Amino acid sequence: MLDQGAPLQNPGQTAASGSPGIGARLMRRKPVERLVAEGGQGEGGSLRRTLGLWQLTMISIGATLGTGIFVVLGEAVPKAGPAVTLSFVIAGLTALFSALSYAELAGSIPVSGSSYSYAYATMGELIAWICGWCLVLEYGVSVAAVAVGWGEYLNELLDGTIGVTIPAALSAPPGDGGVFNLPALIVVLLAMAFLLGGARESARANTVMVIVKIAALVMFCAIGVQGFRSGNYENFMPLGMAGVSAAGATLFFSYIGFDAASTAGEEAKNAQRDLPRAIMLSLVVVTALYVLVAAVAVGAKPWENFTDSEAALAQIMREVTGQTFWGTLLAFCAVIAIASVVLTVLYGQTRILFAMSRDGLVPKVFARVHPKTGAPRANTLIVSLFCGVLAAAIPLGQLADATSIGTLFAFALVNVAVVVLRRTKPDMPRTFRVPLSPVLPALGFAFCIWMMGSLSTVTWVVFGVWMAAGLVFYFVYGFRRSRLAPSEK
User: Fold this and answer.
1) Would 4 be classed as within a structural domain?
2) Is residue 33 in some structural domain?
3) Cα–Cα dist 310/283, whole Å
4) In this predicted model, what pLDDT tens digit does every residue of 144-160 receive, in sequence order?
5) Is residue 11 in some structural domain?
6) Does pTM top 0.85 for this prediction?
7) Residue 87: which domain range?
8) How many domains does the chain have?
9) Dihedral of the CA atoms 192, 194, 195, 196 (nearest 10)?
10) Is position 454 within any domain?
């Protein structure tokens, strides 16, 4: 029986003192066998394996589909013009390369930590911490960003049904003309309520919401194409390739959810078989819908007339039909659709912190599992309240770009991890293998770095401050409390 609490011997350990040097301690790795053996175990209970391929695929689609189309499209079109469709393809291609690496690692290391755990097994604790810290930025901040967009569509719905809207002071954050974004806080709290009920119950609610959002986007295409004007595509790339890549970097925010299935590794019934399938299937479905809806949207409305409104699709529906009904109906579907993104991404965030807590790198409270529901209750409450306050106080654009850079960095590390694991454990059983490795992982890494370079200087500064804060936390807290740390004598 594996002793999960015993520290592991690390390369670089000195014979005289029996204690590894600082460099070796920073590079200490957690063996794959130990990661899998500890799967599901938390403080006072364990996660429950209740999710099949259908639920896992719905989690990935739920976390991905909606953010780029319902929320960020209005910001991306002014950057790229009609070529925003190409921006979606580039962002999707970048996600595809990384998705291949995620699929292989998720099938080989089926645990809740996603890319954090993959990095821990391949590149050592410091890199794993950096990756995990990026995931906290990716998941936690994206919950807040999507919640902001939910409030915009809620106002569209209220305006179209009862003729009133929530006052700007209570529906927008400081800097966007408001004081406190109450709707954004509400949707996070609603998602929290579902998550506290357990993974199975949350997955059921998410499946219903995903079906609604797919139906809404198909409806938009069927109606929006009636207003399609080929002249809107005459000047396809008015802002050049730089605009296309800048929009692609922003739209990469739309793809962050496809890896959400990998955070469910310890709650999947057959993780090694189903996780790779769910990741790839969800990415194909999402990319196809994104490109189709973007093409119809730009064809129905000249790109110069796009604003940074988060409710762009509802406005297009209203303009094409000349009626408020269809725009209101789309707003209703979007309210449900975006809520599913909040739900599934919040789920992913709690599971990342669960894995980090179990390894001792963040406080133990995040790994406490409620015996009745099998959910990390305290973890869910803390993360939800943090994300809710963030959503209520920070403008959407800043949140989306900050999320994109953290996501791209984590994805870049995953592409490295799959190559390292191929070299260190070539005979390890794999239910999915990245074709043409290491060529495709190298392309995935290069695309991620290229798109990071397309983000603004302000975003890089925010990212640098975030990483610096993370390193301080690691060396003050996690470095000594890690379960791989040598025993104190």
Assistant:
1) no
2) no
3) 23
4) 777 777 877 788 788 87
5) no
6) no
7) 47-479
8) 1
9) 90
10) yes
